[in-house]
UniProtKB/TrEMBL annotation:
Native source organism of the sequence: Herbinix hemicellulosilytica
Top-level taxon of the source organism: Bacteria
GO CC terms of this entry: plasma membrane
UniProt lineage: Bacteria, Bacillati, Bacillota, Clostridia, Lachnospirales
InterPro entries: ABC/ECF_trnsptr_transmembrane, EcfT
Locations listed in the record: Cell membrane
Family listed: Belongs to the energy-coupling factor EcfT family.
Main location: membrane
Subunit-structure text: Forms a stable energy-coupling factor (ECF) transporter complex composed of 2 membrane-embedded substrate-binding proteins (S component), 2 ATP-binding proteins (A component) and 2 transmembrane proteins (T component).
Official protein name in the record: Energy-coupling factor transporter transmembrane protein EcfT
Gene name of the record: ecfT
Entry GO MF terms: transmembrane transporter activity
């Protein structure tokens, strides 16, 4: 399960998506997440699916690598679908004691599962094709207008970049600790869900010790290099939009126009819900 967490990891490849400006990818990811919650129609899901498949194809990231990230959230996904399936009121299809499955609940569970899956895939694709440094620069540039109201934009972007960078490092550290304890007789694979959860408790102490040690080393390294925030700092590679970025913005605009049009007229179209 630990090895399946892929968010925050960068997959090097020579693709159109890798060469796009990070500001475009951040904005596009946000708009994509918004778009998957704008409709409840078959036509809307077709539009989102076509867009997502096209972007995955352009990224040149292997589909197996992208789908692997879903294994880490399968419990949350099933939990969400379960509640939508049994707690949504409507036309009863099956009654299991005090539980009942309705037509509206069935559709809601299916489409909520699709939405969460697309959300994870779209968000992971952004980190696969963008380095942490590019994410920091792009986020700082997008939030730069907030400096006028004294918001520490550089510090916020730096913290988010460090957090994303630490995710794969901590996952790798957790995997090493698990292997070391398994070599000493620990069992993380057998038993029910509760037993497996309890078996992970001994991992927390060495993992927290390692995380605090790495954080302390990073803080000392930043102080040794006289880091004092974003005031007066310059960029070695300043962000500049290119022709391909403007073309990508146009495609994103067309996509959002189609999705919004579908959401506006969905009352006139056959709705699943």
């Amino acid at each position: 399960m630990i090895r399946d967490i892929t968010i925050g990891q960068y997959y090097p490849a020579d693709s159109v998506l890798h060469r796009l400006d990070p500001r475009l990818k951040l904005s596009g990811t946000l708009l994509f997440i918004i778009s998957i919650f704008l409709f409840d129609t078959f036509y809307g899901y077709i539009a989102v699916t076509v867009f997502l498949v096209s972007v995955i194809k352009m990224s040149k990231v292997p589909l197996k690598y992208i789908m692997r990230g879903l294994k880490a959230i399968i419990v949350i996904l099933l939990f969400t679908m379960f509640f939508n399936l049994f707690l949504t009121q409507g036309d009863v299809l099956v009654r299991l004691g005090f539980l009942k499955i309705t037509r509206q609940g069935l559709y809601s569970a299916i489409f909520m599962g699709i939405r969460l899956t697309y959300l994870i895939l779209g968000s992971s694709l952004m980190t696969f094709t963008t380095t942490p440094n590019q994410l920091t620069d792009g986020l700082e540039k997008l939030l730069s207008p907030l400096r006028r109201i004294k918001v520490p934009v550089h510090e916020i972007a730096m913290m988010m970049s460090i957090a994303l960078r630490f995710i794969p490092i901590l996952m790798e550290e957790t995997d090493k600790i698990m292997k070391a304890q398994m070599a000493r007789g620990a069992d993380f694979e057998t038993g029910g869900v509760i037993k497996r959860a309890k078996s992970l408790v001994p991992l927390l102490v060495p993992l927290f010790v390692s995380a605090f040690r790495r954080a302390n080393d990073l803080a000392m390294a930043m102080e040794a290099r006289c880091y004092h925030g974003g005031d007066g700092r310059t960029k070695m590679k300043p962000l500049r939009y290119h022709r391909i970025d403007y073309f990508a913005y146009l495609i994103l605009l067309i996509y959002m126009t189609i999705v919004i049009a579908i959401s506006v007229i969905e009352n006139r179209l056959p709705s699943f819900l």
